[in-house]
Amino acid sequence: MSRLLCQVTRIRTAAATIAALSLLATAGCGSTSSENSTHSSSGTTEITLWTWQSTINDFVTAFEKTHPNIKVKVTNAGANEDEYMQLTNAINAGRGIPDVVYLDYNAVHQFAISDQLRNINDYGFGSIRGDFTKAAQNNVSVGGSPYGLPISSGPMVMFYNQDVFAKAGVTTAPTTWDEYRAAAEKIAALPGDAHIANDTGDGGFITSMLWQAGAQPFSVDGTNVSVNFSGKNVKKFTGMWQSMLDAKLIDTSTTGWTDEWWRKLDDGSIATMLTGAWMVSSMQKNLSQTKGSWRIALMPQYAAGEHTNGENGGGALALPKGTDDAKAKAAYEFAEWFAYGDGVKVNLAQGGLPPLNTVLTDSDWLNEKDSFFGGQATHQVIATASNDVSTKFEYLPYMAYANSIAVDSIGQAYHGKITLQNALVQWGDSLKTYGQQEGFTVK
């Protein structure tokens, strides 16, 4: 392998320190291992799955009932960046590499560009590829080749508390960002400390909002990367969001996924969430006081009649290189079952959102009503949101790192020290420097 590619594939993860990162390498720069290549004398193949999904045992139990020749050993190596660092370390060591691993879509790109994932066309993915949404296909593809089986998606939607809207005199869900701001002003006028939304500078949220605005801040062509936060669609978002920040219409003190955040969502202090549709199941588990008050709507648009959307979240099952070939075949069999076979039924039963056209067009699924959302047929909104996702957006090959440092720049904008637009440019400069250090040609 060339020195440049070895440099390129030393992709750092967000959770690692600089000292630890210097130890990371790739499958192509080191040796592989057959440590996991042993098979049972009974003919049973045991594969190792890495995932942080809490309900994974439901899938494993169902799969093993119909596939007695394959046993799935589940390991939780940590969530997101923690798992990615463990995976990179395993590949570097040439041992302990999982046969199949759950990766967020941005991480699929990171590891695929590093030549650390198997091309699943080699296992027959091409025969089922067409049933996945175009966005899902794009999310797992690098250079036109697929490196993961999509199992979840996160089309952006607007969750809103209809009761809070009614108290504020907002009679319909905003369909444009101008209407959203007008609703924000009415909600801010309510007694107490109410806001239409919260945001503390989360990189994933900002990226999704840029995607929804039609922006394309990143482009990747092999080892050539472009980072540009000066485009007109970037400024569409920053201009709109900055005006709301200046007017103090956004809660910038409450961090997502904290107890305080859930409390404010449940007492009406935060009236909307702009996030992936996968949030449905989390809301049902964590919000008790406002059951029946919430509704789902499409994301507001920058001009009436537009239909542009982005994604927030979602991921795939991928097959890392460096594992036993026979186990890789069994791992693909499990991954295909999960993404396209009977695992889809298990996924749907858990409230998941498989990015399959057959699901999004199924009349029973579309017409299913949800009591948590006041009897709304929420899947109809989610299906439309899925179809509206733009496929022009690209991830950086070091997106996990990018998101981890976003708050360093964007956080300043939330404290009034810099404009959001200038904060994004500053973020971009940091990403250019990092990419160059990792062996990419960045402009």
UniProtKB/TrEMBL annotation:
What is stated as this protein's family in its record? Answer: Belongs to the bacterial solute-binding protein 1 family.
InterPro entries registered for this protein in UniProt: Bact_solute-bd_prot1 (IPR050490), SBP (IPR006059), SBP_1_CS (IPR006061)
Q: Which UniProt keywords apply?
A: Signal, Transport
> Which protein are we looking at?
Sugar ABC transporter substrate-binding protein
Where does the secretion signal sit in this chain?
A: 1-27
A single Pfam family it belongs to is SBP_bac_8
Instruction: Please name the taxonomic classification of the source.
Output: Bacteria, Bacillati, Actinomycetota, Actinomycetes, Bifidobacteriales
**What Gene3D superfamilies does this protein's entry cite?**
Periplasmic binding protein-like II
Give the highest taxon in the source lineage: Bacteria
